[in-house]
Amino acid sequence: MTALTLSTAAAPGLRADAIVIGVAKGSNGPSVAPGAEAVDKAYDGRLAGVLETLGASGAEGEVTKLPAPSGFKAPVVVAVGLGAEPDKDAGFDGEALRRAAGAAARALAGAKKAAFALPLAEAADAGAVAEGVLLGAYAFDAYKESAKETKGAKGAKGNGKAPLAEAALLGGKPRDKAYKAAIERAAAVSEELNRARDLVNTPPNDLDPEAFAAVAQTAAKEHGIKVQVLDEKALTKGGYGGILGVGAGSASGPRLVKLSYTSPKAKKSLAFVGKGITYDSGGISLKPAGHNETMKCDMAGAAAVFAAVVAAARLGLEVNVTGWLALAENMPSGSATRPGDVLRMYSGKTVEVLNTDAEGRLVLADALWAASQEKPDAIIDVATLTGAMMLALGSRTYGVMANDDAFRSAVYEAAEEVGEPAWPMPMPEHLRKGLDSATADMANMGERMGGGLVAGLFLREFVGEGIAWAHLDIAGPAFNEGAPFGYTPKGGTGTAVRTLVRVAELAAAGELG
């Protein structure tokens, strides 16, 4: 991961491959953002005009490179757009800084060192820039020979470029405890989020449920987290019919992984539950052509939960956090669950499977009931659950449902605070009747219209009484099939990790709803 430092050095004398500055979009053209005063002075105060001549406007994510002024030890200035200029006396918000830093870090792939002269009015700004750099510099190249060659030496053959190696945050305060804490938090959260991205991007032939469980066990041992893995035998003995039913058609057996981080000072407990379908073919209800290629990402919810628990441990949060990873591979075969089969879930309820491609709710149902038995203060599940949610909210926003309005608001506000676009969704009671089954206690499918909401209603049936619960349907933003933007790469995004960590921080501080 990119190395981070806080620096009080002046931009002109700093040895680096580039100096990164911020540019805002003003009413009269681009304006140079705070933090770049020394750079602007070296251009005789005309940097904004020079950038405008080069076509820069200050729009969010816009990157403009130009030669550094005479006397600078860095050869290049990289101007990155921050978006709209804030009102007078108001600073840039954290997400604007995060996205700008991410765009610049991506543009500087292959560089050894860059100095970021972006606005740092307070420690939180330093944390936002640090996150943007670390997330923007991410690259998944484990399967590329060209990347291995490029990492050898400068000028090596190959099309790949190594991520930015080092970033110095100018204007930071290395001896200030708040600044140091902000950087350390950014590093811990970003490193674990990038680990989640790696898991989502890993091909399913190398990441089946057993392999995912092994990754979790290794990380748990490293960070003092208690781990328990239930294999097929244990799942059968325990009566986890949902997880077993989904994994029945695969040669790779399912797993339920429990990760437990405990703090001796904790007053609250949280349970995070993640859907971990390591590959989703749709099962017997096979997905149509064109819908299979990205289904390695169907374990993004479990990856987010895993990363959040490890991040909570690394940050030493004063809250108990348990992560439940419901892992299975959904495949068609002679042993696969069929439409019309009835599964007896871990809760004892029976579910008629009308569509085997509505499998995520089945594994989550067992994990939610298992989490409920420990009576945590709150449960949050995370899942790439429904295409209906993508139709409703698009590819960059996830839906938030809950059994408690205040808790839903708290989770939504946490998501907004950390820069993860989310939207509160209702749970209309009239849709529940569509889940009724003439054969079993309920069916795994209901009305087609409002399918994302129906899925939430199904999950609610498996949450213990009196426990606050929220459901995050991250089907849209979990995997970016388009071009990179801001600090978001192509492929796995790590969506929901930062929301979960923020919720854990709020719970530790006694401020969660």
Class by helix and strand content?
alpha/beta
With helices defined by DSSP (H or I, 4 residues minimum), what is the helix count?
Answer: 15
SS elements, strand count: 20
Whole-number radius of gyration? 24 Å
In what order do the strands lie side by side in the largest sheet? 8-9-11-10-14-18-15-16
What share of residues is helical?
Answer: 25-40%
Global shape: elongated
Biggest sheet, in brief?
8 strands, mixed
Averaging pLDDT over every residue, what do you get? 95
Low-confidence stretches: 152-159
Strand content: 15-25%
What is the terminal-to-terminal distance? 35 Å
Family: Belongs to the peptidase M17 family.
Protein name: Probable cytosol aminopeptidase
InterPro entries: Leucine_aapep/pepB, Macro_dom-like, Peptidase_M17_C, Peptidase_M17_leu_NH2_pept, Peptidase_M17_N
Keywords: Aminopeptidase, Cytoplasm, Hydrolase, Manganese, Metal-binding, Protease
Q: What does the model show?
A:
The chain is elongated and about 80 Å long. The strands form four sheets. It has an eight-stranded mixed β-sheet with strand order 8-9-11-10-14-18-15-16, sandwiched between helices. A hairpin with a 2-residue loop joins strand 2 and strand 3. Helix 9 runs antiparallel to helix 11, helix 10 packs parallel to helix 15 and helix 13 packs across helix 15. 34% of the residues lie in helices and 21% in strands. Its EC number is 3.4.11.1, 3.4.11.10. Presumably involved in the processing and regular turnover of intracellular proteins. Catalyzes the removal of unsubstituted N-terminal amino acids from various peptides.
